[in-house]
Amino acid sequence: MDPADLIGLLIPATYLVMLAIEKWRPARAFPERRGWTWIGIGFLLLIGIVSGVVPLAVPTDWLAAHRLMDGTGLGIIGGTVVGYIVLSAVMYAYHRTVHAVPALWRLTHQIHHSPQRVDMSGSVLFHPVEMVIQVLMQLFVTLIVLGLDPIAAALTGYVAAFYGMFQHWNVNTPQWLGVLIQRPEAHCEHHRKGVHANNYGDLPIWDILLGTFRNPKTFSGECGFESPVDRQLGAMLAMKDVNEPVYGPASAGVQH
C-alpha cells in the first residue's frame, strides 16, 4: 500500500480513538440524540469515499507538473508545516465566506452547525458538496500552489483532519492551549445557538490577527439550531434553509 494511503487510514483510526475517550469521559452534557454516534460513523465513511474519489477525477499528475512552486525541497516535515499553515489560512477565508454569504451557508455549511451537540460525531457532519470543496482546496494548496512531496501533502491532510476533530472533541482542555490550537470550548462558542460566528480558524493565529478570536475558559451554553429543525438532515442535504423561519438572521450566517 502507498504510504500516502496509510496516512489516510490514520484519520478514521484517530477518530475512533477520540470517540472512545469522549464516550468514556464527556466534558459537556449536550442534548441526547438517538443514533447520533452512527450518524457520525456514516458521515465519516462518506468523507472517506469523497476523499478517495475526488482525487481520481482530478488530473493530479498534470497539476503536479504545472505547480506554481516546487516545495519538494522542504522535505516531509518542512512541507507538512508550511503546507498546513498555508492551508489553514485558505480554510479560514473559506470558513468566513460560507458564514457571511447566506446562499453558501444554506447550500453547504448550515448542516454542520445544526446539531445541538459539539462532539466527534458533529466533527464529520458536512454536506457532500462541502466535502468535495475541502478536498479540492487541499489539492489546490498542496499540489498546485506549493508542489509538496506526496507524503508531506498527505500529512498536511491528516493534520487538517486532526485539528478539525480536536476542536469538536467533547473533552476539557486548558485555556492556555487556545493560542496554539482551537479548543473545544472555543469552538462551542463558534457553534453557540443564535450566534454561529467567531473562531473560524483551526489555527488561532488567523482569528487573533483578524479580530475574531474568542477563548473562554469553559463553555456552558447551548449550541446548534432550535428543535425540530436541528434534525432535518434530509432538508439540509437538499440545500433548503431550515433555520431562517426559526430564529432570524443569525441562522442565515450573518456575522456578529
Task: Describe the model.
Residues 81-212 form the Fatty acid hydroxylase domain. InterPro entries: Fatty_acid_hydroxylase, Sterol_Desaturase_Related. One of its GO terms (cellular component) is membrane. GO terms for molecular function: iron ion binding; oxidoreductase activity. This protein is mainly α. Helices cover 59% and strands 0% of the residues. Helix 4 crosses helix 7.
Structural shape: globular
Structural class, from secondary structure content?
mainly alpha
SSE order in H/E notation? HHHHHHHHHHHH
DSSP strand tally: 0
Please bin the fraction of helical residues: 55-70%
Q: Quote the average pLDDT.
A: 91
The number of distinct helices, counting runs of at least 4 residues, comes to 12
Q: What features would you highlight for this structure?
A:
256 residues; mainly alpha; 12 helices; globular; Sterol_Desaturase_Related; transmembrane helix
Element layout with pairings:
Layout: H1 3-24, H2 36-57, H3 60-65, H4 75-100, H5 102-113, H6 120-123, H7 128-145, H8 150-166, H9 184-190, H10 204-210, H11 233-237, H12 244-247
Subcellular location: Membrane
Transmembrane segments: 6-24, 36-58, 73-94, 139-166
Main location: membrane
